[in-house]
Amino acid sequence: MGESMHGKVALVTGAARRIGAAIARRLHGAGASVLLHYRGAEQDAAALEAELNAIRPASALKVKADLLAPIAPQALLGAALERWQRLDLLVNNASAFYATPVGRIEAAHWEELIGSNLRAPLFLAQAAAPYLATAAGSIVNIADIHAERPLKGYLVYSVAKAGLAALTRSLALELAPAVRVNAVAPGAIAWPEDGQFEDGERRRVVATTPLGRMGSGEDIAQAVEFLACAPFVTGHVLAVDGGRSVFV
After folding, report:
1. pTM score
2. Which among 38, 131, 154, 157 is annotated as catalytic?
3. For residue 248, what pLDDT is reported?
4. Rounded to whole angstroms, how far apart are CA atoms 45 and 62?
5. Which one of 50, 222, 227, 231 is at 20 to 30 Å from 138 when CA atoms are compared?
6. Dihedral sign of CA atoms 24, 217, 120, 109 in order
7. 157 is catalytic
8. Among 17, 23, 67, which Cα is nearest to 47's?
């Protein structure tokens, strides 16, 4: 890994674990200082903060926030600006994910899934835009291939990610030319830890992935770094799915 992000500052939401932690490590390895947002994974966030600061002192800071709270954007941005006086990259990774079959959808499901996957990225982007513009920075949203091809039984999540893809393209227009806005759309990367998919469904997903295997958090992190450093790319949603989105 080179120093493509040397001297830059990145804010990664949902950074304590899984894909978010992989993104944070990748950007840090590329030279960035990283603000690690988390909501409940205190121990994981503290461990990652310590790990990164052991590599490069004062290069990582964890901040707890509920992204659905109105004060969250300013709290996170304020922490980054107080520590490093700049912001070059916003990665909207934090996401709620669970099934919402028709007939069993509740208002609370809508609020949480739309809130974490669409509303929070919008208001974080809006608050961060002036600082990103000063740094000629960018935004990378973590969408999903199911934004284009809905996942049966996950109606609200699929709608939220479709909205995030549309938000990506809209913000690319609204914030150009000062800020670039792109997204990564993962396929089968990391199974939910709560057993939402049975073994048979997991085998089916892998069988319908042309590369014949699961991806990893590092695959997503590599794509995030690329989009963060690609000066003539904006408004793009990059599928990182082993080819699954083209399977018929």
Report:
1. 0.95
2. 157
3. 52
4. 6
5. 50
6. negative
7. yes
8. 17
